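Structure tokens please, single chain.
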Amino acid sequence: MNKIVSKEYFSEKVVKLVVEAPLIAKARRAGHFVIVRCGEHGERIPLTIADSDTQLGTITLVVQAVGESTTKICALEPGDYLTDVVGPLGQATKIANYGTVVCCGGGVGVAPLLPIIRALKAAGNRVISILAGRTKELIILEKEVRESSDEVIIMTDDGSYGQKGLITQGVEQVILREKVDRVETIGPAIMMKFVALLTKKYEIPTECSLNAVMVDGTGMCGACRVSVGGKTRFVCVEGPEFDAHQVDFDGLLSRLKP
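Here you go.
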């Protein structure tokens, strides 16, 4: 049982939960995730760790209510408990001094992108972050991203904040004005697909973080399988990050359909 320490609403259906998990807080690195359960018969939900505090022994999770299980998690209040929090799981992000890195996050994808932005900046990179959402209300963690970025570009579908347009337009703006050494992208699969198509055109190495369907989180069940470079890979143990130019996004999108 893991206690909810605090709760903050980003929007009607997106909440930030700070959860007691001292061992996970101590061991986690950028890119790691946990699998949580709410209730003895609850669904296993993978969530990337957005932040941690080793002194307080807490981790930060950002949850979007999209189904019955995530709605139950979002309804929890400080003092309530998650039944299980298992982690840290997956492979940590490969952090190095690449040069100029563009980090682009869509919607709640900004939450798992934040620790990567921080780690890349600490490694000496020039970090340009591009945040995207349908409207201003869906842009999250902007303040925290700005604190670890050399530049932040905001894109909204309706033009209610920042520039009107898609995230790929923001990425291409940067590519056309300066040399980009690497791109990190996290968000909806369809968004990452088009970011990958764009950066492949310009031959820029690109990593994406896949949020596939997961069940056990140990690679045993095969539910999270995805084709990367023509080979079957398991997101929960070999990911969640892969070379975006090698990912079969069409196959992933077909498996993510309800």
